[in-house]
Prior knowledge:
Elements: H1 7-46, H2 49-82, H3 85-119, H4 126-155, E1 160-162, E2 168-170, H5 174-178, H6 183-210, H7 217-251, H8 253-260, E3 272-279, E4 284-291, H9 294-300, H10 321-350, H11 358-366, H12 370-384, E5 389-391, E6 395-396, H13 406-436
Antiparallel strand pairs: 1-2, 3-4, 5-6
Helix pairs in contact: 1-2, 1-4, 1-6, 1-12, 1-13, 2-3, 2-7, 2-13, 3-4, 4-6, 6-7, 6-11, 6-12, 7-8, 7-10, 8-10, 10-12
Amino acid sequence: MFDGLDALLLARIQFAFTVSFHFIFPAFSIGLASYLMVLEGLWLKTGKQLYLDLFKYWLKIFAIAFAMGVVSGIVMSYQFGTNWSVFSDIAGPVIGPLMAYEVLTAFFLEAGFLGVMLFGMNKVGKKLHFAATCMVALGTFISAFWILSVNSWMQTPVGHVMGENGQFLPGESWLAIIFNPSFPYRLVHTLMATYLTTAFVVGAVGAWHLLRDRTNPHARKMFSMAMWMAAIVAPLQIFAGDMHGLNTLEHQPQKVMAMEGHFQSHPDGAPLILFGIPDSEAKTVRYAIEIPKASSLILKHDLNAPLAGLDTIPDDEEPPVGVVFWSFRIMVGIGFAMLGIGMWSLLGRLRKRLYDWSWLHRAALIMGPSGFVAVIAGWITTEVGRQPYVIYGLLRTADAASPLDAPAVGASLLAFILVYFAVFGVGTWYILRLMSHKPHTGETGVKRGDSGPIRTAGITPGPTQNPGQQETLPTESGPMDSGPTDRGDA
């Protein structure tokens, strides 16, 4: 069934599919880890049970989201060796160590403290448990740091030299590779996106429960915290996005040309095209709704500043304009919608109607998944806008793929689609089920199973008996079990 398709196209679709699934979970878990850190810190500082209840409520959700993020991310690394072996061979000396640093620093840090965070609330001291939560949150940040450094180097490759065998090799300084020109902007923009994604999920859950019970203190608190995040971070994100766009214009001008829909150059000021239908063959945007010279004002801070168009770029180096044009508008549109919700919540606070304004709650509920849509749209803008290069300006995507036949790639793609929708669909359904439960006083958090660990050495002997004591049979519960009521308390 895949004989008539292109193996390169299938490989690109497969990587895009797996990345899109994977990106959803870290975009949530990175922000949620920081939110958990804040909740536990507020509990330790104030002693209020409400913060501890919210911590335990979201800890269960974090555990599932984190696990699905890890599982979905492992798969992608194998694709570098299967579908993109040429890329791995050529770029491996540069990107390989960076990805290894992510495992050695972030993944090991998270793995080392995650168990304490999830199961150690009653096993270690409060401060030590809070330290474990902080380490997990730090680990998610470090993971984003290294992965975004790799991706940014592929967008703006510097600091390398070309080996005699055609490989990209590290130059004199790794710092130039790590802190490449687009990395700081992409790191800030992406991290803010994860915080907003989490904020709107938390806000949607709070709104859901407020619509059913406006007096619920847990729902009121989570909704209030989420709306503060929206009101503060959304305008900062728009500013960071603007700075990132200016950096992209400097280093990847054709990506910005595609984002703006500028097929033609504009020597006397370029219009801002709000909507339209890009036609790459006719080199125009049909039915364009535009604001004269506004694009030059945004990108050059001058109404009459000239802007080059795609007519200055060879046809075989143009990115797919239609995809980039619309994904960019989806991302920006959601960003301004988030800003609107944040400002609306501030108005609700001023009028003392934050917890009574049903329309605000409904809007926040609708905006719950908006962060996920925005980060996927932003990823599409970034990656499709880089085409036809996998390493911008140096290695074409067509030259980076493995020499595979279409049926081989297509079969694995089909398997991924079936397995991903089954496994992660169930996981997402369970997360939504947890969110539908009303938060309450005395949340239990993550619990171990009642059966306890598996004993592979037979029956655990009972306690040593004193001479003359009546003999008892050893039990599976072990010497530390004081009775049935203690089982599963861990």
